[in-house]
Amino acid sequence: MSEPHDLAQWSLHCFCLGAKETPHRVVRDNGVLLYRLIGGVPSAEVDKARLALLERYGLVRRDGELIRTSFPTLGTEASQLLRQRARSEAAAIVREVETRVRDVSRGLAAAGFAGHVHAVVFGHVLDGLTWDVVRTITALPDTSLSAERPLWNGAFWAIYPKPERTGGTNELRGKRGTLVMVWEDYNLEALRGFAATAEVRAALDRPDSNGAELVLAGIRLPVLGPATPARLAAACRDIATTVAHRLVGQPRLATELERLGVGLSAAELPVVYGHEFIWAVRDQLLEVGALAPPSDDLAHAMFVHRDGA
Hints:
Elements: E1 11-15, H1 24-29, H2 31-37, E2 41-42, H3 48-56, E3 60-63, E4 66-69, E5 73-74, H4 76-110, H5 117-137, E6 155-159, E7 168-173, E8 178-183, H6 188-195, H7 198-205, E9 213-216, E10 219-224, H8 230-248, H9 253-259, H10 268-287, E11 302-305
Parallel strand pairs: 5-6, 10-11
Antiparallel strand pairs: 1-6, 2-4, 3-4, 7-8, 8-11, 9-10
Helix pairs in contact: 4-8, 4-10, 5-8, 5-10
């Protein structure tokens, strides 16, 4: 499969919590140039205004007289290696976590939130607690903003081909909790609309009790935090711990990718690989029936998180 010579046609990802503006738009607008810059282009051949823009967003670096793309680009061979490894490791780990995933399902059902299992397992456990555990094992990219990095900081990468599935987690932070939304193409705009309402924002700021549920704009949602039942919280932590240790346990992967021309730092590797791995784990859990597929009900794609979960 030949790769498009335009990074706008690749899948773009950013690990940049707290960013004022992510680089996606700039990369899409300059995809052909950034693809050329992977191999290095003399600075005299790059338009000064475009170069200034790319430097402002931290997307290029100077290498003597050459300008090079500064973020990792994983083409067909590298993405195939990454995804095959993720699927293989996910198939092995599912046997270890399947029972605990079913425990999460039972715990949520007992609390009246059976429909929220997919959102909690993916958004809270795989794409939440797992990263907390990873941070205790190895360093991840620094995402704090600074004078040198005023717009975004962390890790940005492009990968081709695009994955068959799309989706992820978005958050709306309030003073008393964070609304976590697990989105897919079909519900993304509806979730954005829900989160934009003043009623939802006000509810997340209200100093109410730290209960196990919260009603936002008439929708009852589970709250994961200090009030989470101990058995449910323990099951979530156990899954995240197992997944995290498998995620970082890839000592040869960086070398294998480097042979394909992809250089990832020690901090970037778990993020880039982990993005593929947590989705592979989710897909394997669906395949073995341990996890129900996402519901069409918008409410089931959301939960509230409070510190202490």
